[in-house]
Amino acid sequence: MTRQARTDKSFPAAGGQPAAAPEELAILGIGLPAWNRLLLVAGLVALVVLPFLVEGFTTFQMTQVAIYAIAILGLNLLTGYNGQFSLGHSAFFAVGAYTAAIAMNHFGLPYLLTLPLAAVISFLVGFAFGFPALRLEGLYLALATFMLAIAAPQLLKFSLFEPLTGGAQGLVLMRPEAPAFTGLDDDQWLYFISVIVMLALFWLSGNLIRYRIGRAIMAIRDNPLVASALGINTPLYKTVMFGISAAYTGVAGALSAMVVGFVAPDSFNFLLSVALLVGVVVGGIASMRGAIFGGFFILYIPTVAESFADVFSKGLSWAAYGVLLLAVIYVMPSGISGLIDAVIRRIAQPKQAPRRTDPAADVATAGPGPSNREKK
Amino acid sequence: MMNRTDCASCIRATLAATVLLAATGAGPAAAESQGITEDTIKIGNIVPYSGSASAYGNIGEALKACFAMFNEKGGVHGRKIDFISLDDGYSPPKTVEQARRLVERDKVAAIVDVLGTPTNNAIHDYMNRKKIPQLFVISGAAKWGQPEKYPWTMGWQPTNSAEAHVYARYILDTLPEAKIGILYQNDDYGKEWLEEFRDGLGDRADALILAEEPYETSDPSVDSQIVKLAASGADVFVNISLSKFATQSIRKANEIGWKPLQFLNSVSASVGSILEPAGLERSTGIITAQYLKDATDPQFADDAERKEWEAWMDKYYPSGDKTNSFNVFAYAGCHTMMHVLQEAGENPTQESIMTAAGNMKDVAIPMLLPGVTITTGPDDFYPIETLQLVRFNGTFFEKYSDAIDVGKP
User: Fold this and answer.
1) pTM for the complete prediction?
2) Is B326 an interface residue toward A (CB < 8 Å)?
3) Which residue in A73, A96, B34, B308 has its CB near the most CB atoms, within 10 A?
4) Is A331 strand, coil or helix?
């Protein structure tokens, strides 16, 4: 009973995956499903056009946002949808990054092939860790995964693995170059690779969540006892989710290694785990699109905080970050995604309502209305 | 109907724009002399203002104050220095991001005094690919002096190799029966240092070294390492630790009553930020190697350069700590940069800046010790190669040996 109360409270946005909006709701006379399609198309066009409109550095940053979004989505699958906490995702990120770096440097594997390899190896590591994690709940699981996060950088420096990992010096990677036929520069090329991988992984997890597995893992989150009683193989689903979550984060790590062109143990410290968790919460727990907002947050807010802190002292940037984070959590308790949903709920109205309740307004907008719409 | 045609044409327009932009994007790179305008030269810098190495953030503040002084005097060839300093928290991926921000967004002419070995490592290839000078790297690694492979990168301070060899030579000459215990940071920096030190001891290394204890930058303290070193029976302590770990190691050694002859790596030999937190009493007797004048040393009380430095501190950096050697370091580093810009000609380019940096002949820089000058050449990218041993007497480092020129490592 207490457990049920606790898990319920931890997930105010439970089931936050936007359910199909009721057909009759509309904004500016356009139904919500149509808006969804419109925004999706606009978003895809923006993704394609963006790297041609901005300078290389911004493209590089957008690439990092996409990479963080993948990692945050991975953590969200585990924490938001399945109710398992992890402070150890920096370790899975490191596994992916080092898999890519070692495969490219020592075995000459083409960089694109390192992505599925990173996914598989991270999945196995995550799946293996999922077994002991089965016995742990809530805070205990958080502590166990925390151990992973602090052990990973030390293991990477450990002298036994040094011939492979490069030890504390890390490994310098050959940065992937854009094939000549694309006419893209290297930044744009890496951007498109990352965005395509991100879209594919979002599509996959959308399918995962929408169907049987998704319902099963959410049932486990909401009430594990009832879930087992209904015949859901709880241990299997939990460990598999750990593996899938680690695989997502590992792919993000592999992409990150390519984009930065350098891996070193100190890049994958505990702060990265915390940053990913912050991304999950700020973006919106159990919200897929929230992962993208989370990616933007963890990339840009430290920089914003730095310029804020500049006014007083450079050394206060993390304090400024804390203030910004508190402000965001206070204003948007269910994340950026939750805020958007709330705004939509406020401005959306039944499709036919204006005509019936306010004939005067109807007359006033009747003429220009449709043509306005057409221009859009 | 109208809708359809509109949209079709807008798709065509978008495609056309996309192709056009792709074509221009693939065009030639930016102009050669980026960051240099009629009246400014943009100089970038990255140091850790946050994180475990944040004590070094001070260098960025001091550099800023020093360039402000030069700007007030009229800059160089009529150009003012536009100095931009960013925080990387000593995390390599963040250094890459900040370096790209400086080079691609702020369009700096050069970056100067970026702190750290792994951090500079992460941007080494990038800076050379972009052909933007990466000058006076704050790291004693030898790899910053490879003009044939990395013509856009240059160090400044004596290499760790030079320093390690000076200590090794001193120990061999005066303490042939030393029992040595070593604490080192388990990274690029610490391991290279240790290797060079062993190299300096030659075939006596295994006989003289009793214990080697590594620590990780993520460790909360180095207490257990110090206890182990003391238990090994060592009477010479070679302390290759940085920042807070240097402070901790000095304090812990004293607390447990271990009183070896201590050699502290020079990057940590700062009275204000390392020794004072550890306790001046506890730090007495520590030996290190120097190439900069110690502002707290009374032998320089009437020194003209020191007085000028003090006047600068008072006027441009009043909040700075005059006992902190980083303020001397940054002051000398900034003077070296200004010398290079002066020599780079009326209309400097990235090339002429590197040529000037690689063509310094016995250049005297304020606050370098007597006998220490900067000399570089097209195939010698190691600006300072002379060191002098000094000993902390409770208030300042006093002279312990003459300047020793160890030449190229």
Assistant:
1) 0.75
2) no
3) A96
4) helix
